Amino acid sequence: MTTLTLQQAYQHCQQIVRNHYENFPVASWFLPKKLRLPISVIYAFARHADDLADEGELNDSERYKALEHYQADFEKALKDSYSDNPLFFALTDVIKNHQLPTNLFFDLLTAFKMDTKTKRYANFDDVLNYCHYSANPVGRLLLHLHKQNTAENLQNSDAICTALQLINFYQDIHQDIQENNRIYIPTNELAQFNITEQHFSEQINDVNMQRLMQFQTERAEKLMLSGTILGQQLAGLFGLEIRMIIQGGLAITYKLQKISNVFDRPRLTSRDKFVMLWHALRKTT
């Protein structure tokens, strides 16, 4: 039997990135070349878990079991420092070489498993708890890769990543319920604005719905702004990348607040991207 080489394992992960190029963070190409490969491996890990949670014809129970098997295989790879699965073989090498906390990978898997079981959130704290697992580990891993994982940086990164996750929710409010029966806006806030689930499934764009989404986006914007100092403090290409990510989130938030139909998905134009880069280079918001 042919033994899998580390080079083959990394090539496998790079192919996953190429297959999902449209979803791979464009700003990551601002990163130092030496970090693009480990980031592609981390992306491949999360991408496959996301596919298990959302893609295909499995029911939620089957998806949960598939994610449990995925986690067990990952745990075995960590124990053995090897796996016949090229993704896990490459990932264990990345974790070892960059001294990455393994709990952050388990946090991501927790979020994917939550998606198979939790379809509604009672309050905003519950949504923040989900973001703690689904979004914050990504920023923390980037900081660990760059050896910039101070307590202050981690806190600011959490604010940015949670805000980005919320903004992503607000772009997909109809798609989430239509495709996965999920609503990420707290049920107590739906009641506060006299919103029913039919607003989401039937795309009812009335005044109450507009007020609800204005409230959501303004809160996400404040959260994003609370973490922007991270982009100012990080130097070099990594700092530029973080500032571009922040600018992108703020640009989408602005469009969400100005859009007439809350179910329309905003798009960034070439001009928007130029303005984002201008602010990122000047370190302004």
Description:
With 285 residues, the protein is mostly helical. The chain has two domains: 1-102, Farnesyl Diphosphate Synthase; 118-285, Farnesyl Diphosphate Synthase. The chain is 73% helix and 0% strand. It starts with 5 loop residues before the first helix and ends with a helix. The model has no long low-confidence stretch (mean pLDDT 92).
Give me a quick take on this structure.
This protein is an all-alpha fold. It has 15 helices and no strands.
Question: What is the topological layout?
Answer:
Blueprint (H helix, E strand, L loop, with lengths): L5 H14 L13 H22 L5 H21 L5 H13 L4 H15 L6 H11 L1 H10 L5 H21 L1 H8 L6 H6 L4 H5 L5 H20 L2 H5 L2 H23 L11 H13 L3
Enzyme class: transferase
InterPro entries: HSQ_synthase_HpnC, Isoprenoid_synthase_dom_sf, Squ/phyt_synthse, Trans_IPPS_bact-type, Trans_IPPS_HH
EC number: 2.5.1.21
